[in-house]
Amino acid sequence: MTTPEGGFRATVLTLYPEMFPGPLGISLAGKALQDGAWSLETVQIRDFATDKHRMVDDTPAGGGAGMVMKPDVLARAVDHVADSRPKLFMSPRGKPLSQARVRELSSGPGAIVLCGRFEGVDERLIEARGFEEISIGDYILSGGETAAIVVLDAIVRLLPGVMGNVLSGETESFETGLLEHPHYTKPQEWEGRRIPDVLLSGNHGAIDKWRRAEAERLTRERRPDLWEVHKTPQEK
Ligand code: SAH
After folding, report:
1. Which residues neighbour 9 within 8 Å (Cβ) at sequence distance 6 or greater?
2. Would strands 68-69 and 57-58 be described as parallel, antiparallel, or unpaired?
3. 74: Cβ below 6 Å to ligand 1?
4. Is there a single domain that holds both residue 198 and residue 106?
5. Residues 18-45: pLDDT tens digits?
6. What does the angle CA 189 – CA 195 – CA 198 come to, to the nearest 5 degrees?
7. Is the domain of 119 the same as that of 189?
8. Which terminal CB of the chain, N or C, has fewer other CB atoms within 10 Å?
9. Which of 106, 131, 156 is at the close of a domain?
10. Where in the cell is it found (predicted)?
């Protein structure tokens, strides 16, 4: 895993480096990794434990269930790789990941991604090293690794040259503030269901109009939160 000059550099701090590249080694992201459009390095947090049992976690101050990852061990791991790249801590308490943040990250030098396990990490580490907490949704995973894979997958597909069809990235859900319109492909009729006539009309003005209307309908029905932000003053 070499670092291409100028490419997006991801460093993942984890107790389970064998989970990487995992899905990121496949298809678009994997091809881009092979081609050097981005690089991925993992750091085994346990390598920075100094006691004879190589402990990375300890019991929570104040009592309670579970274990907390130790700030001293994590700090050594972070300081080993830290540079000017943003430091991200995967965390259900974090700001929900947005396509806007993904786009910003994809135009930067890379990211240092910390994956929690157990109950999480000592709060002082997050503060002292300036981690940005990012959540991938309102549910609890067993560890930050799958969240890190989600974040990196979303970033990598936006890197220059990774997606063959650049246009498809720009009409997709969230890029326009709307959910995307429905898609169809051949056959024209399948199980008695026909592709909407307008899509077969060859009239590109009418097709654009239909797609726009469908995108708005779906957003209104499924994501009133997005619609509230998007709709024009007349629609409000
Ligand atoms: N006790 C914590 C959950 C710990 S889950 C709480 O209640 O908030 C263990 C680790 O999984 C976390 O430290 C985090 O790194 C990761 N994780 C779990 N859910 C996540 C989510 N929705 N988004 C991002 N990371 C998550």
Report:
1. 3, 38, 39, 41, 85, 109, 110, 111
2. antiparallel
3. no
4. no
5. 999 999 999 999 999 999 999 999 999 9
6. 140
7. no
8. C
9. 156
10. Cytoplasm
**Range of 92's domain?**
8-156
User: Is 165 a member of any domain?
Assistant: no
Cis check: omega of the bond before 109, within 30 degrees of 0: no
Ligand 1: residue whose CA is nearest its atom 8: 92
**Dist CA 99 CA 230 (whole Å):** 15
Of 156, 180, 201, the residue at which a domain comes to its end is 156
**Which atom of ligand 1 is least distant from the CA of 66?**
1
Residue 39 in 3-state DSSP? strand
Q: Is the CB of 110 under 6 A from ligand 1?
A: no
What count of other Cβ atoms lies within 10 Å of the Cβ of residue 49?
Answer: 19
In a domain? residue 75: yes
Residue 2 lies in a domain: no
